[in-house]
Specification:
With 456 residues, chain A is an alpha+beta fold. Helix content of chain A is 28%, strand content 25%. Chain A folds into two domains: 74-187, Uridine Diphospho-n-acetylenolpyruvylglucosamine Reductase, domain 3 (2-Layer Sandwich), CATH 3.30.465; 191-415, Alpha-Beta Plaits. Chain A has helices at 29-37, 92-99, 117-122, 130-133, 161-167, 202-212, 250-253, 275-290, 301-305, 332-349, 387-402, 417-423, 427-437, 446-450; strands at 5-10, 19-24, 45-48, 64-67, 74-78, 83-87, 104-105, 140-146, 152-155, 176-183, 185-186, 191-199, 218-224, 235-242, 265-266, 296-300, 311-312, 323-331, 355-361, 375-383, 406-407. In chain A, the strands form five sheets. In chain A, strands 16-12-14-13-19-20-18-21 form an eight-stranded antiparallel β-sheet, with helices on both faces. Chain A is globular. Chain A starts with a strand and ends in a 6-residue tail after the last helix. Chain B has a single domain (4-245), classed as Rossmann fold (3-Layer(aba) Sandwich), CATH 3.40.50. Chain B has helices at residues 13-24, 36-50, 64-77, 96-101, 103-131, 152-171, 206-219, 229-239, 242-245, and strands spanning 4-8, 28-33, 54-58, 85-88, 134-139, 177-184, 186-187, 203-204, 223-226. The chains are: A alpha+beta (456), B alpha/beta (250). Chains A and B meet through strand 5 of A and helix 2 of B. Bound molecules: flavin-adenine dinucleotide (FAD) and NADP nicotinamide-adenine-dinucleotide phosphate.
């Protein structure tokens, strides 16, 4: 049955600037192959996962957007070795559900489990353990790709490594990931021991992170963007390690991999534009003043990794105009100055993101477009208030370029092609692989054209 | 208790969700589907998720021999035993604009959705009654509750299926066989892509339908609407006076 193409308004998770796209939902592998083989009917293609990238990475008004909802089958799961091979439409939530009861967890995870395996590979996502375990791509053992000419091929760090690494972090531009084999990590419970630590300002925050990162597998901080002067960069660090069964309260110990079900909440409406300010500021303050510095708690993986997943459609609190995410990365050498400049700029514009997330990143991997390298990364939401938002993001881009930093494609909605070129020096290496497998630029995205990965 | 279920049309959106739920509860499965590749992919998926036993059968409801032979094929693949239950989940819905122009296509709708289904249900009903035990789940549709100008070709095939399932339940009362008529409203599956808005509150995810179906099996319910508001919606639609109904554009 050939897939029906329908028109749908799509945006990224930030809800910024939705556009009409032609969307196809293949029901089977055969449907998918037919779609890709039909080069005259579908000259340009984009694979979309769950649309959790914030900007226009998974949006393409000038092509056919393919949803992989039905390509969500696990191919095999080796319970002894912790190796799971799945179709790309399988979600991280699914993988956890299947693997956790057998003592395996994701090797690293973004702040939401509602992403597809394909999206996680294509963006080479990272988590709270990047400083120790690197990004998602480092845990992929092999990929099965459907290329622009309709052929399928297997690649891995050993077999066609150039194609493999270009696909990791390649934002869907090398071809469609059909299947990926992921190495899971062993865990001894579904829980984590978390220590909270308050830090007075940026300097204290960075110092505390350097001090503690060696002893915690997971580490991330919340920064209060409204802090100014000697409180600029004040934060709460949330440091975590895997909990062993003996760390759990008695009633959970007998079933360490089981997490009692919780009810999900949903944001039922778009919030009016003024609501956010008060909400997030008070959330931070409540947290900041009630968290005692050396408190340690045991929480389940959902609470620790996915606090926002408990509230469906939380992006609606930014109102209908949406928001953009700005995730900046600075190399170690310039991190403190760069972060300070960013925070000052944000405070000056008064356009926060009242909360920002800070994290120490570890060394990068061989992927030419992968985001993180050794340094510090800071992620903030910026509500769409029109021209002032654009002005601020341009100023931030300039700071990043001056300090040797870069932006994350999975979060970006705005950067120009000059900025991108300045931030991703290995772009040409990526394009050489792209040309070899997709000379006609069939795989595209609105973002790829904007940042100049595809000539527009 | 671990039992074996046969799923006909195993790769349909709804069947996949039902199969995963049955597997989660530890039941073994026989998957009968038209595409060998897709049926095999689903089989491997279920085994990876739930460590159950899965067998697959080639099954095309348009092929007489496979329709009349499915019971024996299922028995053979299940070590000579009849499965505990059967879930009938295949179906076609061609656009009526197409079937109006092509009466053969209209007849194909009846043959797939009703004629083949009736044959299979009859065979299993009789065999299960002889054994004194069994579960029959048939996925029909609310479209069969009242004929509508825009979709009565499909609707009447489902009306026949609903009547068949209801009648068989009546006949097999007290035999130990549980017959369940499932009446889905809108469900987000390949059948409705481009036709329904998957975000509408009345459009169910296949997983929600699967949850309702498993609950119906557990509680031995005879007829279920899924999602539940459809029961009331269809009650209203059925009771709209004919003169008024004719003025609507449904
Ligand atoms: C609340 C929240 C928290 C987040 N936290 C983090 C975080 O901590 N760390 C982090 O790294 N990211 C984070 N993200 C971003 C998110 O992890 C990435 O954007 C991820 O790529 C989204 O996956 P998706 O399935 O939704 O893909 P989409 O957003 O739909 O697509 C993303 C990209 O992947 C490509 N793609 C998807 N499937 C395939 C495929 N089969 N083959 C080829 N290309 C494909 C698309 O073409 C697109 O370029 C967060 C997002 C949210 C909403
Ligand atoms: N979706 C809805 O809103 C809705 C509402 C009410 C009732 N229903 C009914 O629910 C059932 C499941 O459908 P679905 O919604 O899950 O849609 P679906 O995913 O499109 O499933 C239909 C299935 O029927 C199979 N099929 C079609 N012709 C066949 C044949 N000749 N032989 C064997 N299999 C055949 C298809 O097989 P292939 O995969 O090989 O094509 C497909 O797996 C159907 O009976 C449908 O009428 C659906």
């Amino acid at each position: 049955m050939p897939s029906v193409t329908m028109e749908k308004s799509l945006s990224g998770w930030g809800g910024y600037h939705p556009v009409k796209c032609a969307v196809a939902v293949p029901a089977s592998r055969a449907d998918l192959r037919q779609l890709v083989a039909d080069a005259s009917g579908n000259p340009h293609l984009l694979i979309r996962g769950l649309g959790r990238s914030y900007g226009d990475s998974a949006v393409e008004p000038a092509g056919t957007v393919i949803l992989q909802n039905h390509l969500d089958r696990i191919r095999s799961f080796d319970r002894t070795a912790g190796l799971i091979r799945c179709e790309a439409g399988v979600t991280l939530e699914d993988i956890i559900q299947v693997a956790l009861p057998h003592g395996w967890f994701l090797p690293t995870t973004p702040g939401t489990k509602f992403v597809t395996l394909g999206g996680a590979v294509a963006a080479d996502v990272h988590g709270k353990n990047h400083h120790i375990d690197g990004s998602f791509g480092g845990w992929i053992r092999s990929l099965n790709l459907l290329l622009a000419d309709g052929s399928e091929c297997e690649c891995s760090p050993e077999e066609r490594p150039d194609l493999f690494w270009a696909t990791i972090g390649g934002m869907g531009l090398t071809g469609m990931i059909l299947e990926a084999a992921l190495q899971l990590r062993p865990c001894s419970s579904a829980y984590f021991r978390v220590t909270y630590r308050r830090c007075r300002n940026l300097e204290a925050t960075l110092r505390a992170i350097e001090e503690t990162d060696g002893s915690y597998t997971y580490s991330v901080g919340w920064i209060d963007c409204l802090g100014r002067g000697d409180r600029l960069g004040r934060s709460i660090l949330m440091l975590g390690n895997d909990a062993r069964p003996e760390d759990l309260p008695a009633k959970l110990r007998s079933q360490p991999f089981h997490v009692p079900r919780k009810r999900r909440k949903r944001v039922p409406i778009y919030f009016p534009d003024f609501a956010l300010n008060r909400l997030t500021v008070s959330a931070f303050n409540r947290f900041y003043y009630t968290v005692h510095p050396d408190r340690e708690v045991v929480v389940d993986y959902d609470t620790y990794f996915y606090p926002l997943d408990g509230i469906h459609d939380w992006n609606r609190i930014y109102g209908r105009r949406g928001f953009v995410q700005y995730q900046a990365l600075f190399p170690l050498a310039t991190a403190e100055r760069g972060l300070r400049r960013v925070l000052e700029t944000v405070a000056r514009f008064g356009l926060a993101s009242f909360l920002a997330v800070i994290k120490r990143s570890g060394p990068g991997n061989p992927s030419p477009l992968s985001y993180l390298f050794d340094g510090y990364t800071l992620a903030l939401d910026i509500p769409n208030v029109g021209p002032r938002m654009l002005e601020m993001s341009q100023q931030l881009d300039k700071i990043l370029l001056e300090e040797g930093g870069r932006l994350y494609l999975a979060k970006d909605s705005l950067m120009s092609s000059e900025t991108f070129r300045g931030m991703y020096p290995r772009m040409e290496e990526f394009l050489a692989v792209k040309r070899s497998v997709d000379p006609e630029n069939r795989f595209t995205s609105a973002q790829a054209r904007r940042v100049g990965l595809i000539p527009s | 208790m671990k039992q074996t279920y046969l799923i006909l049309g195993a790769t349909s959106g709804m069947a996949k969700a039902i199969a995963r739920k049955l597997a989660e509860q530890g039941h073994d499965l026989i998957l009968a589907g038209r595409s060998e590749g897709e049926t095999g992919l689903l089989g491997a998926d279920l085994q990876a998720r739930s460590q159950i036993q899965v067998k697959t059968l080639a099954f095309d409801a348009g092929r007489r021999d496979q329709v009349s032979g499915i019971l024996e094929a299922a028995r053979t693949s299940n070590d000579g035993e009849l499965p505990e239950g059967v879930v009938l989940a295949y179906g076609v819905m061609f656009p009526q604009t197409e079937t109006e122009k092509d009466p053969d296509r209209m007849v194909e709708t009846f043959e797939i959705n009703f004629v083949s289904a009736a044959r299979i249900l009859q065979d299993f009903g009789t065999a299960f009654a002889g054994r004194g035990r069994g579960v029959i789940v048939g996925i029909s549709s609310v479209a069969g509750d009242r004929g509508r100008g825009s979709n009565y070709h499909y609707g009447s095939s489902k009306a026949a299926l609903t009547a068949f399932l209801d009648g068989m339940r009546h006949r097999l009362q007290g035999s130990g066989v549980h017959v369940c008529t499932v009446l889905p409203g809108f469900v987000d599956t390949p059948m409705t892509h481009g036709i329904l808005d998957p975000n509408s509150p009345l459009c169910a995810k296949p997983e929600q339908v699967a949850r309702d179906v498993l609950k119906a099996i557990r509680r031995r319910r005879g007829r279920i609407y899924t999602l539940w508001p459809w029961r009331w919606i269809m009650m209203i639609i059925r009771h709209i006076p004919e003169a008024m109904f004719l003025k609507t554009k449904l």
